[in-house]
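Data card: per-record layout.
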Amino acid sequence: MPRHLGFDVPPTLALLPDAAVAKYLGRGLQSGQEGPPQVALRKASVPLPDAAAVRWRTEPVRDLLEEATHRFAEDRTAADGWLAPRLHATLRMTRAEAGDGRLWNHLAVVVAPDYVVWRHKGADIAQASRFAGPHYTQCFSRLWWAAELFRDGPDYRPVEIACRVQDVLNTTLRLDVVDHRPTAHALLSVFDSLFSSGVARPGDHVNALSAAVNAAGSTLVYDVLAPDGPPLLDELQAWIAEAEHAPPVPWNRLPEGPDDGRVPAASVRALLPLFERLRVEAPLRRRGAGAGSTAESAREPTVPAPRGVSLDKDLPPHTV
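The structure for this 320-residue chain is written out next.
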């Protein structure tokens, strides 16, 4: 990431309200030509309740982001699959905490606006929604939630599959149904088969199947067809508490997530025949000629507008 912007990174994360982002986010910051107005933004930020906790330190996150820019200088979209599990394992928190968009605002606007520009800048600027936007669009929130929703307990390997084609993040991550872990993993199983088969334009198949599964989910109760196990909250809390003395996440192998329960394999298998049938029957809406399946997609996904990840519903109340 560029070092010439001349801004100081605060030592810990905080909460930055949307109003402050709207006031101070301009084309200079979005284009990478200017650094953030640190004094004003820090005054507008709200300290986290446990701001002194190690898990909120910014230095490990900055180290990850700088490594990602070096590793993936020639293929920025490929950085997502590497960064998502490591960001999740570095920023250890509950879903309730991750559902506070002010945290992601602070990370993107105050701590790492240069990464947002590096990863998402188009011909001119990075869109404002990459700094402060929905959980499935904001630069860092979408990666944390992808890791949270697609991991299999401590195993982040499914997250790498989810990040292989951008349409999974752009489309599937929006859906209510991926809040149900067997559904999310059954979708990934079908996607992985598509990706491995070398099918042309895999993103079109991802979008079509995601829309079909989401529509079918309005009449079929997936959690009855494929029950999930209860979340192991004590194990999750223990993993979060371990951040106080955990070493930095490894760069050349996947980290381990919380051992809070594996996805029942029998439930995933129960959904696969249905999803395969939906895949065959789902109509494809092809994008314009010349658009690559792994490239950043500028268009809006063709799926019903969902709430996604239960952020508009009640999140688990447990906190640390």
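Known properties of this structure: The radius of gyration is 19 Å. The longest strand covers residues 14-15.

See the next section for split statistics.
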